[in-house]
Structure formats: structure tokens, C-alpha cells
Fold this sequence. Notes:
Blueprint: E1 9-12, H1 29-44, E2 49-50, E3 52-55, H2 64-70, E4 75-77, E5 84-86, E6 96-101, H3 109-119, E7 126-129, E8 135-139, E9 143-148, H4 156-169
Parallel strand pairs: 1-9, 2-5, 6-7
Antiparallel strand pairs: 3-4, 5-6, 7-8, 8-9
Helix pairs in contact: 1-3
Amino acid sequence: MANNLDTLKVKAFKSDRVPNPEPGGVLPWQKYHTVRNALVQTCRRHGPTGPMGVIKIVADAEDVMTLLARDFSVWKPGDPDPMYFILDDQFNHERYCYAELYGDDPLTENWLAAMTETLRQFEGWGLGVKNIPDSYLLIFSDRLLVTGQLAKCKTATDVVEEASRLLKRGPKPWWQFWK
């Protein structure tokens, strides 16, 4: 599976935000959570995933909160001590899900290849990895957008190696930011 990484383009960006609006405007919760469910299921093949598991998609439910008020059991719990923390909130009408990665070595070539493979099922969707120190990684099916320390990477394999190093190092104490 890691061979698929050779086809990924790596592009550095400097903007604070990369907009990715839903083409129809309003992004229904059902569409958002269909993508999130697929990402959760893919992550679970690589390690514990949470905070919440998959949610049952109910076509006629107006919103998630109303659905949960009627039947909380439609949203399965996540795994204890998740390695892959897939945010369950839909922040806006953009085609993004967000993740934080924890544990010994969560960002592997196999995990990244699996994420891009999953995203191929959902045209235009991306997964933002928020907790890589001094960096940000935005994963699409065919490219990786990177900032900070990851901006020096030329290949997807470079991104995996550098992001893994940064995650293991952890955030710098405030007095080391100028180094």
C-alpha cells in the first residue's frame, strides 16, 4: 500500500486557511458524517480511534443533536485511549474532517496510504492533521498540503518521516520558539 505514496504530490502553502466549500453551499450533516465514518473505520484498522465511533446516518434527521436527543445509541463510542482522534464536530460547510494523532507512531506510510485511499471515495474531501508541532498537514486523495517544518518535504515519504519525528518530539516549550 505504501507504494501509492509515490504518486502523491506534496505542496507547501503559507495561507492561514485553505477554503474547501461544499459545491452546493450547505453541507448536510449526513454527508459530513458519511465521510467521517469512513475515516474512523479506516483509522481503526491501524489503531484505537475516537473520541466517538461511527454514527448511524438517518436521512430524515434534521441534525445530529436532534437525532442524539431521540436515541443516543445511534452514535457508537470510540475506542479507549485513541491513537487517532477524529474530531466529531462539523465546524462549517467545508469538505474537511480534522484529526489529531497520538501514541508511539501513528503517522505511518500505511496509515497515510489508507487515508488517501479512503478519501478517493469522496471527491474533494480532505483530512487536516492539527497537532503536528510547528506544522500542519492537509491530506487529500491525490496530494498533501503542508506548512511549517513539513514545508521542506519533497515527497510523501519525507512528510511521514518528518511528521513522525515532530510528533515524537512534541511541542517545544515557549522559550524554544525562536530556535
